[in-house]
Amino acid sequence: MDKKRIQDLARTLLVEMGEDTTREGLRDTPRRVADMYAELTEGYSMNPKDILSKEWHEVTGMVVAKDIEFFSLCEHHILPFYGKAHLGYIPSKKVVGLSKLVRLVDCYSRRLQLQERMTKQIADALNVNLRPLGVAVVIQARHLCMEMRGVKSGANIVTSEIRGQFEKYESRNEFFEMLKR
Ligand SMILES: [Zn+2]
Prior knowledge:
Elements: H1 3-16, H2 24-27, H3 29-40, H4 48-51, E1 63-74, E2 80-90, H5 98-109, E3 112-113, H6 115-130, E4 134-143, H7 144-147, E5 157-164, H8 169-180
Parallel strand pairs: 1-3
Antiparallel strand pairs: 1-2, 2-4, 4-5
The protein binds zinc ion (ZN).
């Protein structure tokens, strides 16, 4: 990302909004906007394969990581959508630490996204890199592009993706029961 160019673009945007970019409150805004976008889109430079490569070889039952907070930007409006991701998998050989799952969510949320695609990408990354017996991902989020623009307010949008053994009723049910607790 060319930060200098983002600064120029942010300044142009402010001018087009009718603002005076020399007033005190706005003087550093282009720089702050450039820094912010670099941070909020750092997922593009993160590699899911690297994140999930350091594993332990102890097989346990179902692993569930609940309530992983995330903040993303909708690709239609570049406005935040944010909420919680719940990840579950049934390991065959590989198990990763909780921090890796948090990083995986960061990897796909810190970029321009669609909630449905992000849910699918996280499920696929777990599936491909850990080769587990099953994967389940549920994401619930509020979308400011809907709420701020008055299309819909306060609604949680929920998306889910399941792979492998979670397609069986018992595993899926166990996962969803764990999310309720
Ligand atoms: Zn949007």
